[in-house]
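Subject: Interface between my chains keeps coming out wrong

I've been trying for a while to get a sensible model of this assembly. When I model each chain on its own everything looks fine, but I need the whole thing in one frame so I can look at the contacts. Pasting all components below, labels as-is. Any help appreciated, I'm running out of ideas.
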Amino acid sequence: MGTKHTTTALEHEHATHHEHAHDHDEHHESFVAKYIFSMDHKMISRQFLISAIIWAVIAMTMSIIFRMQLAWPGEKFGFVNALLGDKWGKDGILDPNMYLALVTIHGTVMVFFVLTGGLSGTFANLLIPYQIGARDMASGFLNMLSYWFFFISSVIMLSSLFIEDGPASGGWTIYPPLSALPEAMPGSRLGMTLWLCSMALFIISSLLGGLNYIITVINLRTKGMKMTRLPLSIWAFLITAILGVLSFPVLFSCALLLIFDRSMGTSFYLSDIFIGGRPLDNVGGSPVLFEHLFWFLGHPEVYIVLLPALGITSEVISTMSRKPIFGYRAMIGSMLAIGFLSFIVWGHHMFMTGMNPFLGSVFVFTTLLIAIPSAVKAFNYITTLWKGNVQFTPAMLFSIGLVSSFITGGVTGIILADSTLDINVHDTYFVVAHFHIVMGLSAIFGMFAGVYHWFPKMFLRMMNKKLGYLHFWTTFVCAYGTFFPQHFIGLAGVPRRYYTNSNFPMFDNLVDINELCTIFAICGALSQGFFLFNFFYSIFRGEKAPQNPWNSNTIEWTTPMANIHGNWPGPLPVVHRWAYDYSKPGKEHDFVPQNVPLEPGEVDGEGH
Amino acid sequence: MKLLVLLSIVLLIIAGHQLLRIIELSRGLKKTQEWRLTDSDNNMMGKGMLIFMIFFFLFFFWQVNRFIDRALPPSASEHGVKIDQLWDANIYLITFVFLVTNFFLFLFAYKYRGNSKRTAYFFSHNNKLEMLWTIVPAVALAFIIIFGLKYWNEIMDDSQDPNKVTIELYAKQFDWTARYPGKDGKLGNTDYRQIDGTNAVGLDTLDATGNDDVLIKNEFHIPVGRDVVFKMRSRDVIHSAYMPHFRAQMNCVPGMITEFRFKPIYTTAEYRKLPYVIQMMDGINKQRAKLGKEPVVFDYLLLCNKICGASHYNMQMNIIVDSDKDYNAWIAKEEAKKSVKTVASN
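Reply #2:
Try treating it as a single job with all components included. I did that and got this:
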C-alpha cells in the first residue's frame, strides 16, 4: 500500500519534471543542496565513492604498518612513530595493542565501509536508476539519509582512532567476552563503545539504502524493462540488497545485546568469568550465541561484498568481449542460489567453537553446495571470453583479474568448508590468504572495474588509459604476490592476529615468506598512487567523454552527458530487448542498445 | 625533520602540478583521444595476459618447491594421518582446477584479444555445456562431502576408550594450565567464584575428588598410543587450544567445557628423528643462527589460536609425548609431589 502511494507520488513528480525539463539549465541550486545534502542518486553515488576511497587509503595504510611489523618485528620505522605517536609507536616500534587495533579497524573498514558501503553505495546508486530507466531512486530523501548515516558512522569510527585507549581491537568479529569486558584489553573500553555506535548507524544506513534499491528495482523499471531484461548488474544489486535487509538487522540485535552486556549488566554472552582479579556476576550467557548471531550476518556479508562486484564484472566482460554474457539465466539462477545458500552456511565459521559436531556436518553440506553456482559463474565468464573480440580497457583487465582471483581464492574455500580439514587450518594464515583473495581482491577488482567503466558517466570525463594499465598490472601482480604466499604460512600452522611470530622457534624459518608478502604489499600500496592520481586528475582535467564511449547496450548511455535531475530530459526510454545484443548476426554494428526496437521476426534474449 | 618532510611533499606536489600543465598544453595542440583502444593496445594487453599466466604459474610452482618443506610435519596423531590423506586428495583436486580454469581464462583473453577486423561469435547459451559444468562440480563435491563427513564423524566420535587419559586444559590471559585427575582418576568440580591466588583454576573446595588433581604449567606430558581426552575451559575470554602437529584444535569458551580427543602415534623422541623433522629443524636452526639465536630441538606445541588480547602471540605450552612407561613414571612423580604438598599444607 505504502509502495503504491510512493509510486504515484513519483509519477506525479516525473510529470512535473517533464514540464520543466527545458528550464533545467537555468535552474541553479545552492551549493549545499547540490553537493552536500543532495537527493540525486548520481551525487549520492559520488559521495559514497569518494568516502570509500578515503577509507580505503586509511585501511591500506594500516595494513602496511602491520605488515611491516610482521616482516621485520622489532625494527624501528620513523613513519610508524610519525603516524602513531609515542604512545603506540614508541621509537618507531608498533605497540602490541595497537597492532590488534590496526588489524581490527583494517578489517572493519575494508569489509563494511569500503566494500559494503562504498561498493554497493556507489554502484547501486549510480546504476539502478540509470540502467532500469528511472528518474531517480524511489525515495531520494531516504537515499540521502542513507549516505549521511554512513557519513556519521564513518566520523565516529574515525574518531575512535584518536582516543586515549585506542580503537576497538578485538578483531573485526568482536567476539565477546574479549570485546565485552573493559578489563580484557584497552581496546574494549571507549573504543569498543564507539565501534558499536558506529556499526549501529552503519546498519541503519545500509538498511535505508537496501530498501530503496529493492523498491526501486521492483517498481520503477521503465516500460519494457522486464525482470528478464535487467542487466546482471541490477540483478546483483537487487539480490545484495535483499541479503542486506534480511541479515543486517540480525547484526543489529547482536550488537545491541553486546551493548546491554557491556553497559547494563545483562549476561547474554557472559558466564563464569574471572577477570581483573575478581569474579563477575554474569552467569548463564554464552559467547557461542554471539557467534551464531554474528555469522548469520557475517556470511551473507561475504556475498553482499562479492555479488555487486560480480554484477559489475558481468556487464564489463560482456560489453568488452563484444559478446552476450554466456548463460544469462544461469547467471541469475546462480546468484539467487548463492544468495539463498548464504543464509544457511554461517556455521562453517564455527566448527571449532564447541558447537555440536553434528550441526557442523550440516553446515559442511550446505557450504560445499555453494561451490556449484560459483563454479557455474566462473565457467560462464570464461565462456563469454571464448571467441570474443576482447577489448582490453582497464575495466576489462580488472574484470579478468576478478575472475582469476575468484577462482584462485574460491578453490581453497572447498578445503575450509570441510570441517575435517578445517580443524588444522582454522584461524591460520591459510584462512587469511583464502578470504583476502576470494573476497578482498575480487571485490576490490570489481570496484576498480566499475570505476574505470562508469567514470565517464559519473564525472563526464575519461580516465587516462595508460595510467589505468599501469595501475592494473602493478596491482594484479602485487596482490597475488602479497596473498598467495600466505597460504604457505598457514600450512606451517601460523595463527592469525599474532603480533610477531618470533616467539615460536617453529616459525623462524618463515621470515623470508613474511618479508616477501610485505614487500609486495608495499609496492601494491604505492601503485595505488597511479589510480588516485588518475582518478582525481581526470575528474577535473580528463578528456571530455563522448555519449557512449564503450559502445554499450545498457540505457544509462542514452542519457545526455550532463548530470541532470531526472536523468532523461524527455520521456523515459522504452526498452525492447535484453542488454546483451553484442555482435548479433545481421546487425550493422556490434551492439544494439536496449532501446532499439526489435526487427520483425527478431528473437529477443538468449534465443538466436 | 617532520617539517622538512612535509615541505618536500608540498614542493613535490607543486612540481608535479607544473609538469602536468606542460603536458596538458602540449597535448591540447594535438587533440588526442588517449582513452580510445587501438589494436596495438589490445595486442599488447592480450599478450600481457599470457605472459602473466606463465609467470603466475611459475611463481606458484616456485613457491610450492621452496616453501612446501616448511609446512607442518606429518601428523603425530592417529586421526591426523587420515586428515592428511584427505587434505592431499583435496589439494591435488583444487590445484588441478585452479591451474586449468586460470589457464583457460588467460588463454582465451590472449587468443581472442580484440582486433578491429574480428567479429565476436554471438553465443548466448548452451544447455549441454551448462549442464556439464553444473553436474561435474556437483559429483566432485559429493565425494568431497562424503569423505569429509565420514572422517569428521570418526574424529568427533565420543565413545570412550577404557585406557584413556583425561586432561583439562585451562586457558587464561595469557597462559595455559594442564590439570590431571590424580590418583582417583576424576577431575574435581570447579567454581569460578573460588578462584584466588592459591586456587588458580577455581577448584571447588567442597568436592573432595579435586584434592588430588595435579596442576602443570609450561610443559605437560601425554602418553603415546592411548586416547588423550582434553576437556577445555577458559577463565576470561575465548581462547583456542591449537596443537598443530596433532591436527587438533578446539576453542576454550568461558562458561562451557569443550572437548577434543586424539591418540598420539609418535613420542617426542621418535618424532624428532623423522627425516622431515630433522630437515625442518636444520632449516630453522640455520635461520636462527642468522638471527643470532641459539639452536633449538623440536617440541610439540600448544598455541592459542583465538585473539585474546595483547599477548595473544605468546601464549604457549610445550607438550611432551612419552612412552607409556615414561609417562606413568612422570605422572606418579607429579602425583607424589602433590600429595607431599597436600600433607604439608594440612
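Reply #3:
Confirming on my end. Residues 96-132 of chain A form the longest helix (37 residues).
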